[in-house]
Write a structure and sequence with these properties.
333 residues, 4-stranded antiparallel sheet, 52% strand, binds calcium ion
């Protein structure tokens, strides 16, 4: 009786919690897959379980298919871009050390194989940005003179929405296009973060520049936060540090750092899944999760610079695929 009463009292007097924290994932036993230079994931056959796509030497392979894409892997994205109810994987290929002559290409990969969505040749055939937003494909490509232009792929062409010098990151959001630069116009100058909205351009908080970014609702209040990775700097050997910041508030003007990666000079890629932040640093892949004290940094695996990662919804829960030799598949539990 006494214990029941104290339980009831405890329940009544506990402080009212504003946010319920999601369970904290831990790392399960890693599985290995054949080697890859890059990985992607999408539920190509629509059975609720993601297929893992591995890219190696110009060839994309997954359980159930393969496709010769050529070129060097640039970026991946996923979504139902043809409206048939099943996801496609979007893969961007282009030029790189292993193939300096390749044009920039955007591929749509479905159950039945790959088809070419857009191709562009040029002196710098790279694809710094590729996203699927509400079934539409967003891409950033180099134009002349280090200008990067971004927009939607419509009717096999690029409907350009923005262009700016050295603007490697250009992300469409509910507030406008967020433009992130690793460095500025002048040599050795810091980069910046700019919101290009209907009312014009405005600066957002940035620590020396932006290497990566994502949007997602981290606190479940229905408002998107902007998550920014920085750390690159011209003096990266001594000054750069991988760092992830969350920008929140009405105009994304409130910035707080949620992770630092000692010994890693950059947060190269960021994805948001289930309110958690998945980050590829220059040495490790991190999963940032909220706990009672703030943000916890779970190191999932080591990685090589230039590798890629993908959040994979498996039959038994999520896992993180990380490219390399071998490809690693790390279950979260
Ligand atoms: Ca599937
Ligand atoms: Ca589809």
């Amino acid at each position: 009786m006494f214990s029941t009463l104290s339980l009831l009292l405890g329940a009544c007097t506990s402080p009212s919690s504003t946010t319920t924290l999601a369970p904290i994932y831990t790392v399960g036993a890693s599985q290995t897959l054949p080697a890859s230079e890059a990985v992607a994931a999408a539920d190509l056959d629509g059975d609720g379980v993601d297929e893992v796509l591995r890219y190696s030497q110009g060839r994309l392979e997954w359980e159930g298919g393969s496709a010769a894409l050529g070129g060097v892997f640039q970026r991946a994205a996923r979504g139902d871009v043809d409206g048939d109810g099943k996801e496609e994987a979007l893969i961007a290929t282009g030029m790189g050390r292993a193939d300096r002559a390749s044009p920039a290409r955007i591929w749509v990969v479905g159950e039945d194989g790959a088809s070419l969505l857009l191709e562009r040749a040029g002196p710098r055939a790279q694809v710094p940005e590729l996203r699927v937003v509400d079934g539409r494909v967003w891409v950033a490509l180099f134009a002349a003179d280090n200008v990067v232009e971004s927009g939607w792929i419509e009717n096999e062409g690029l409907d350009v929405q923005h262009s700016a010098k050295l603007a490697l990151r250009q992300l469409p959001t509910s507030k406008g296009i967020v433009v992130g630069r690793v460095y500025g116009d002048v040599p050795k100058s810091d980069g910046d973060l700019t919101l290009v909205g209907e009312a014009g351009s405005s600066a957002l908080p940035s620590h020396r520049g932006v290497r990566s970014m994502a949007v997602g609702d981290l606190d479940g209040d229905g408002q998107e936060e902007l998550i920014v990775g920085d750390g690159w700097h011209y003096a990266y050997g001594t000054q750069a540090q991988g760092r992830v910041a969350v920008l929140s508030g009405e105009g994304w003007l409130e910035s707080r750092a949620i992770a630092h990666f000692p010994g890693e000079y950059s947060a190269q890629e960021i994805e948001v899944h289930e309110g958690r932040v998945l980050v590829m640093g220059t040495r490790n892949v991190h999963l940032l999760q909220r706990d009672a004290l703030g943000w916890q940094d779970l190191v999932l695996a080591q990685t090589s610079e230039g590798g890629s990662m993908a959040w994979v919804q498996g039959a038994d829960g999520p896992a993180i695929a990380i490219s390399g030799d071998p490809t690693q598949l790390i279950p979260l539990q």
